[in-house]
Specification:
The complex is a heterodimer of chains A (about 425) and B (about 300). Chain A is of the alpha/beta class and about 425 residues long. Chain A has helices at about 1-35, 50-60, 70-80, 95-105, 125-130, 155-160, 165-170, 175-190, 225-235, 250-255, 280-290, 320-335, 335-345, 355-360, 375-380, 395-410, 415-430; strands at about 40, 60-65, 90-95, 150-155, 190, 260-265, 265-270, 275-280, 295-300, 310-315. Chain A has a four-stranded mixed β-sheet with strand order 2-1-3-10. A three-stranded antiparallel β-sheet of chain A has the order 8-4-9. The longest helix of chain A is centred in the N-terminal third of the chain and has 33 residues, at about 1-35. Chain B has helices at about 5-35, 50-55, 60-90, 100-110, 115-125, 130-140, 155-180, 185-195, 200-225, 230-235, 250-260, 265-299. By secondary structure, chain B is an all-alpha fold. The chains are: A alpha/beta (about 425), B mainly alpha (about 300). The interface of A and B includes residues 77, 261, 406 and 427 of A.
Chain lengths: ~425, ~300
């Protein structure tokens, strides 16, 4: 009898412990998550307002974790790999988007119950395509499109080129040769066409846009890209730039004020005519750094269309709350009402056509002297080639930018610069087939 | 009695558990990864010694090795010379310098600034077109053309060395001062009576007696210096520009792992770096203490 009681006692105890365990486990999780229904990770505070709206609308609580872009991939990766403390929704920047759509962290949105392929026609084609993985399944969506243009100062355009009309200026910049013609005119009047040589890199694709790496893992350096070396060098040699490297203090300063340029033993004061920047460049670069010349700007097209940056978002495939997670993605990318407000509030150029078609007619930006930049950018977005983004782009662009810089500075010959580029590419990505030169 | 011994283990257990999880485990895991082609996600495939073979033949790693040495070497030489001169001045019985603690804090201050702020500050000071340094030099007529400090290999490396010197000479100075104040004044008094001049006092008394301190500074600085990463990373584009002259070993490791996703190879680089550090620490130690032991035996 004693034995039985003893056994029962210990069994009760055991169950108690087990129950306690499972209890504390679930309650522990619930406690941590009780006030949070959804976790979102991103690298900017852009989503703060949308999240507040979503919370109000659905009566849920969302926790937003912002990790600065430099650490974002390194912080997010281990979390996604292990699934511990992972977000339900996370954003991805263009720089690592291709890697992530193929890594399988994002839920396949082409499948049931999402079936986003049905919505394909509602999006700017290149934006929708970039969210696809190797098998053509959509993993991430984006609410925005980020085509680029050339922002220039109207007053200088009027003085030098006789007009400040964006269409007419655009006509004068349809090829690199024409860009140099305008640059020469600028120089004659004491202005500089661009802040630095890197400005024209977005046009280096020329009329033959090709991916850095093709399907056979071969690294391709097109003739257009090689020609770009000479263009950059010409900009320097002809003094068409203000020697103000991108993101440097002088680069920002030259937006609003005349700056001093020291070269060949002389110091001259000059003004920069134009900046090559995308949609977001207007709101987060120009507007935040310009005071005096507000309203004196306009945007037009360069020799070839390009896009720069962009944020995509998707649902983590191990999320326990996929439904709500996708609801949030849906609001960000498909909700007419929300997106209309969002666009009007921020001026962000959207990729969701049902909304943009509604609103694009009556946009005008004070900063750009009343120009409808919205319509302009949507036109640009149409002509962007989607298939040329690879997961190697960010690093290869950096390597090639270095090669160009060294050639422009006269430190390396053209062949040496290209050989060094190949060597660096091979070193970083041993799997690539690099031309032997 | 025997039982009591167990409590000892219990008391050191917290340290060991944390040490095993956060130190030994990653070190062992890195060692394993160095034999794989792990790319940061997915599975790792064992590839044998391929990563190490690549490491030995990798011209970028060799370049990084020499860059690191050049940058560290110039910085260390300057740093120790400045620290010694300052220590001589402050410890000289005849000069009687005042305000030691004031200067000590002033000299140490640069070390308290975070490296990212330092990099930002010097990035602006050394700017090609609008940097203060170029403006000053041009105004007093030393140069006629602005120098693009961070765009030429030699000046870029020199800049990093000098920034490091500026950051660390105060630290070395404090340690050297501690060593100097530990030397008995009897020696100096005796030297004074014997008619030794300052240079003789310094080379015959101060320097030999400071040897252990100097060795300590050198080894810690060497280990820190071989891990040089933050300044080169932040001053230019983060991949060692200009011309790969700021490509240091740890920067190379970082880029291989987190930028190019070659985690396996980066692990091999880490072990290469470890072996190099061990070898050079041993050499420094031997060269400073080896002779003494021989002499001691002879006596």
């Amino acid at each position: 009898m004693k034995k039985v009681i003893g056994l029962m006692m210990s069994l009760v105890l055991l169950f108690g412990i087990l129950a306690g365990c499972s209890n504390s486990e679930s309650s522990g999780e619930a406690k941590g998550d009780k006030d949070v229904d959804l976790k979102v990770w991103s690298f900017t505070d852009e989503l703060k307002k949308p999240i507040t709206k979503f919370e109000e609308k659905n009566g849920v609580k969302i926790e937003l974790t912002i990790v600065p872009i430099a650490d974002y991939p390194t912080k997010l990766k281990p979390v996604l790999e292990s699934g511990v403390g992972a977000p339900d929704v996370f954003t991805g920047e263009i720089a690592f988007l291709k890697q992530w759509v193929n890594a399988g962290y994002w839920e396949n949105l082409s499948e049931n119950p999402y079936n986003v392929n049905e919505l394909a026609d509602n999006y700017v084609p290149y934006v929708f395509d970039l969210g696809k993985d190797e098998n053509g399944d959509v993993r991430a969506l984006s609410w925005q499109t980020t085509p680029g243009g050339i922002y220039y100062k109207r007053s200088i355009a009027k003085e030098v080129l006789g007009t400040d009309d964006p269409d007419e200026i655009g006509e004068m910049l349809t090829s690199m040769d024409k860009v140099f013609e305008v640059s020469e005119k600028m120089k004659e009047k004491g202005y500089r066409m661009f802040p630095d040589e890197g400005s024209i890199r977005w046009f280096s694709q020329g009329d033959d846009p090709q991916a850095w790496v093709n399907e056979k893992d071969e690294l391709k350096l097109t003739d257009q890209k090689i020609e770009f070396l000479d263009y950059a060098k010409k900009l320097r040699e002809e003094s068409y730039t203000a020697l103000a490297p991108e993101w440097s203090p002088s680069w920002f300063e030259a937006m609003d004020k005349p700056i001093k340029v020291k070269e060949n033993g002389d110091e001259t004061e000059t003004e920069v005519f134009s900046y090559v920047l995308p949609t977001w460049g207007l709101h987060s670069v120009l507007k935040t750094n310009v005071e005096d010349s507000v309203g004196d700007w306009a945007v037009t097209s360069g020799p070839s269309p390009y896009f720069w940056g962009g944020t995509w978002l998707g649902v983590y495939n191990k999320s326990e709350n996929k439904e709500l997670a996708y609801d949030f993605v849906k609001m960000m990318t498909q909700d007419d009402e929300f997106l209309t407000d969002w666009a009007k509030e921020t001026g962000d150029v959207l990729s969701y056509l049902p909304v943009t078609n509604e609103i694009k007619g009556d946009f005008s930006d004070e900063f750009l002297g009343g120009q409808n930049n919205y319509q302009f950018f949507l036109e640009q977005a149409k002509s962007i080639e989607p298939g040329i983004v690879t997961k190697y782009d960010q690093q290869l662009d950096t390597f090639y930018g270095n090669a160009v810089q060294e050639y422009v500075d006269g430190k390396k010959s053209k062949d040496e610069a290209i050989a060094e580029f190949y060597k660096k590419a091979q070193n970083a990505y041993p799997e690539l087939k690099v031309p032997k030169k | 009695m025997k039982n009591l011994n167990r409590y000892g283990y219990a008391f050191i257990a917290p340290f060991w558990i944390i040490f095993l999880i956060f130190n030994i485990y990653p070190v062992a895991l890195t060692f394993y990864y160095s034999f794989t082609n792990y790319s940061g996600s997915g599975t790792a495939e064992v590839v044998g010694f391929a990563n190490y073979q690549r490491l030995i033949a990798d011209s970028y790693f060799v370049e990084a090795f020499f860059n690191t040495w050049k940058i560290w070497g110039v910085n260390f030489a300057l740093q120790i010379v400045i620290a010694l001169i300052l220590a001589m001045i402050f410890s000289d019985a005849r000069v009687k310098m005042k305000g030691l603690s004031f200067f000590r804090s002033i000299f140490y201050l640069p070390n308290l600034i975070t490296v990212s702020s330092v990099a930002l500050l010097f990035g602006i000071l050394l700017d090609w077109q609008h940097g203060s340094l170029n403006m000053v030099l041009m105004n007093i007529g030393v140069i006629s053309e602005p120098i693009n400090w961070l765009n030429q290999p030699t000046t870029a490396q020199l800049s990093v060395s000098l920034i490091l010197t500026w950051m660390w000479f105060g630290h070395s100075f404090i340690v050297v001062m501690a060593g100097v104040s530990g030397i008995s004044t009897d020696f100096y008094e005796a030297a004074l009576i014997d008619g030794a001049n300052r240079w003789q006092t310094f080379t015959k008394i101060t320097l030999p007696l400071l040897k252990p301190i100097l060795l300590y500074i050198m080894i810690t600085s060497l280990i820190g210096g071989l891990q040089l990463f933050d300044l080169p990373m932040l001053l230019t584009d983060g991949i060692g520009s200009p011309d790969g002259s700021l490509n240091t070993m740890v920067l190379y490791l970082y880029n291989q792992a987190f930028k190019y996703n070659n985690y396996g190879y980066a692990a091999a680089v880490a072990y290469g770096l470890f072996i190099i550090t061990v070898i050079f620490s041993a050499i420094v130690f031997k060269s400073m203490y080896g002779n003494e032991r021989k002499q001691a035996r002879r006596v």
